[in-house]
Structure formats: structure tokens, C-alpha cells
Amino acid sequence: MKQEQRGKPAPGSFSLKKNLLEAFTHSDGLVSAAVVVLGFLVGTLLILIVGRKPSGMYSAIVQVVTGIDLRRYVWNVRYIGEWLVMSMPLILCGFSMGFAARTGLFNIGAEGQYIAGLTVAQLVAVFFPQVPVLHWFTALAAALAAGAVWGGVVGWFKAKFSVSEVVATIMMNYIALYASRLITLNMPGANTYRVPDFPATAMIRSPFLERLSNGSRLNYGIWFTLAAAVFFWLVMGKTRLGYSLRATGLNREAARYGGISVNGSITSAMAISGAFAGLAGAVVALGSFSYGRVLAVQDGYGFDGIAVALVGNSTAWGTVLSGLLFGMLKSAQPLMQARQIPKEITSIIMGLVVVFISLRAGVRIIVNWQMKEKARKAGTPGGETSASGGADSGDAARNAALTGGEQ
What we know:
The protein is built from 18 helices and 4 strands. It has a domain at about 85-320. The chain has a two-stranded antiparallel ribbon with strand order 1-2. The protein has a two-stranded antiparallel ribbon with strand order 3-4. About 75% of the residues lie in helices and about 5% in strands. The protein is an all-alpha fold.
């Protein structure tokens, strides 16, 4: 009898394990935090395998986030400014992917929308009258419009002709790249890699922010990025438009039955998503460079934005935190190289985080199945109901990204 009791798990341990499983299954924020920690643990292990000290990676990250060099015990706030500069386009392109995902669409065309915004911003910077403030403000507005058009076209084709937004956005990425190259190569004074310098009135440089961050490239783009986050949060969670977009993403037929214009919702969602990426292009063009660029390859911010949105659970503030995380890792690469740490480690960590996040749905299925089986074997009253309830709550958690508030 005692042996049988020793063979059975303690009721308290089973309850604790069940609670932990439920917490990880139903909390997207908790899962995101866990996979980030797991990604860093794997990265640490890889550094040890190649014979380097993990402290080099973590000291580089501390220097990026705080400006403190732990090797020489000096502080330079410029590193924080450059971290924010690197994070801004990642956050905005993450919004591009995340906003569409909340409406049931998969926008992997943020790179093309980013290029459209960057190209139009450069054209306005070069050819628009040099009026202070109005010049760069017009460039930003034009970039927003260009990104919205580039995304809205895909949304219109999706709504009108049921064209897959995945295929369409992939094609539009390459169209944007080569159209941008064709346009900028034919600008006066252009060569194979750049166009003439921008006038000072076209730049979004902020002397105050530069002084505050000890000469970094931190610019007005930080305010527009914050405004975009607030816009995402308000529209998606607090407005009738956001409700219509989320309802369309959950069930288009039900939304149509409820009087919502499904075609309009799809087009609007893709247009707004494109506007976010177009703004990212303008922020990079007018904030990080003093001249126009002739793009030979894609910058990659749009593709990184997909990972940012996934880790941020397609919510406004989650995407901001995720973008800061990815920007931190990218900014730490040169510092890590100076400490004899391969910079590819950061790319591996980012890739692992995305892979672990992508496995979340599969883990939920397995966990819910295990809980259902344990409840069935235990023979508890209402066990089947409890198990199916767990599955239903899992579905509810998955739908929370579309219907719920921000996390």
C-alpha cells in the first residue's frame, strides 16, 4: 500500500504543474518572456562551445542599454541613443506586420512598403522647396501615403479578387526595390550608390536630442514612433474601426452578416499597415543618412519586423518592447566583436526566439491534449468537460490577439 502511494505523484505537485502549464498556455506575454530567456541561454551555451566568455556578450548588451562600459567603468549615453535609432524602424515595421495580423492578414510586404516610403521621402527631400519644418513634415507625410498605397493595393486585390496577400506582398517587395533603384538612378547627380546630399530643411535631426545623447543620431523619429504606438493601441482597442477590423479577422462571414464592410476592412487594414512601414522608411532616410541612397539590396527592416511582431504578440506595446530587444541585439554586434564574441551569435538568438515563438501553437495543442488525457484517466467528475474547457480557453487565448485589449 505504501509502495503504491510512493509511486503516485503528490496531489500538490500535480496541481502546481497543471497551473504552470495553464499559465504558459494561456499567457502570450509569459511565453514571449520565456522564449527570450531560452534564446539567451542557448546563445550563452554556443559562446561557451566556441571557447569565448559569455560575459563579453552581456557586458556589450549592458553598454548598449545603459551606456556603461563595464571594462573601463566609463559612461557614454551615446550608446543609448544609437540603440533607440536602431529600434525605431524595427518597431514601425513590427507595427506593419502586427496591425495586419490583428485583422487576420499576413503582411510580409513591410519591406516593400518601407522602400516605397524611403524612396518618396528622398524625392521630396531633394525636389521640394526648402521651407523649414514644412519640408521634412511633407516628406514624412508623403512617405506615409506611399506606404499606405503600396499596402492598400494588396488589400484591394485581396478583398476584390481573393488574391493571397502573402504572394502579392512578396512580389510587391521586389517591384518596390527595383522601381526605387530605377527612380533614384535617374535623379540629377546620382551615381550607382547615392544621390546628392539632402538640404538641412529636409532632415529630421534634433539638435536637442543629439546633445542629450552625446552626439548620437537620435532624431524626431522617436516621437513619431511613440505616436504610431499610441495610434495602434487606440485604433485597435478603443475605436469602432478597430472593432470592425478585428471582427473581420475573426470571422469574415459573421462580420459581413453584422453589417461590416469586409472588403473595406481588409483594404483599410493593409493600407494602415503599409503606412507604418512607409514611416519607417522616411525615419531611416531622413534621420540616419544625410544623403539619398540607391538601394542595391533590401535593408531587411521589413523582414525583421515580422519577427518583432511575432515576439510582441502583435500588440502595440508588446511590439515596442520586442523592437527594443531586437534593436539592442543589433546595436550590440560591433561591441561584441570588440570583445572577441562572434556577432552572428545575436542573429542566432533572434532566430531561435522566432522559432520558439512559432512553436507556441504546437505546444498549446500538446499541452491541452495532455491535460485532457490526465483528466480522463483520473476519472474526475466532469473531467471531459474540464479538458474541453481547457481547449476552448486555448482557443480564446489565441483569439485574444484579435478581440482582446493590449497586453
